[in-house]
């Protein structure tokens, strides 16, 4: 290389650095953003936010940020996190023009060599509507209740195993995850995957999903990083050639095998009511063929999202009950009274769980204290910009409200918002509605989690089933559980002992 060409390269490099510096300075000083408080480094680079979530302690960090800087905190050059309750209806309302941000791209999965957006990940309202319309009825509570017969064997396996393990130290958090995944397999394919029966992570599915979520939650903080790594088909191809596993690939293979099995046994599948059967039977009745990609999309999404969210919520319920003896005993008495009155079935039904008023309060309060998602629910400010909390934000700004922050807002939930107190929901109707409007456990608006009824049914059935048959006691040497958050706030260390009760039906 000649001296002249080396000089050209040096000048080009210097020019590139200069352009980057000017652009960084422009964004940091952009009207509408420059006056917002936040960590000084965050206004210049998204690397601050990347490092902020890397340790898995984002929920505590976000609460501290808002305590220090207020309701509007700048956490990246174009990102503003918001804790103003009034922002929820503006950002997430049905019909809102705030679209999901590129953060969600990090959770797209590969199918036949192409990336596939789901109802959860798509940024397009039109695509979301097109995906949701054919399946919305199947996710209604009326429809989900028809699948109880597929859930009941999972409850029986769980309680039978806990009876067998009576007195031993049980990792309840792991067992609840296994239960949730076996349930989602049963209602999706009429087939449990066998986590509880084999007492292990079958084919390392759960560890693979966990790795995928961790990577997505971290890389999504800087969408460009995702585009050049897991969001790149070239990068995925290199991983495949190096025989490095795709953490989500095992799930798509399980779905493909389930579809092939169903199609090979059409003479015995007409009476099935699971999700796969519903989609296939709907094709017969309407004459409209659901494309393979769309079928894979819905069924894969069930598995990827359906077990983690429910497992997290179930852990939260049992954790807070065990740590609050008076609440535990009060709920157990409600269950016992209904059982003594002959109003409960051997496997408690969802309808029966709705008779348990205190149970419903405990479930709602546990999900307030520990929502499954504890990152900001990111959206993009639409064309023309908008004003939030008295601040004008330019179009393209990424904004979001974090359930982990808003659920602890003392103005909404009371001065004891950091405490587990189900009775807070026993208030006047207006106060209860106010608190309910600010629960983001399942998201909000048109993008509310479509599978929430599955989770609600599972919780309503399993919690009273266990408390009726067993007493649970804390068995860990540690005083508290441990939580790591990479999008989902996943708990470990929920070690307990089961003791069968003499009141067992």
UniProtKB/TrEMBL annotation:
- Top-level division of the source organism's lineage: Eukaryota
Would the keyword Signal be found if you checked this record's keyword annotation? no
Name the cofactor(s): heme
Write down the species. Answer: Bionectria ochroleuca (Gliocladium roseum)
Organism lineage: Eukaryota, Fungi, Dikarya, Ascomycota, Pezizomycotina
Q: Which family does it belong to?
A: Belongs to the cytochrome P450 family.
| The entry's keywords | Heme, Iron, Membrane, Metal-binding, Monooxygenase, Oxidoreductase, Transmembrane, Transmembrane helix
User: What is the official name of this protein in its record?
Assistant: Cytochrome P450
Listed transmembrane segments: 9-29
Q: Any keyword Protease?
A: no
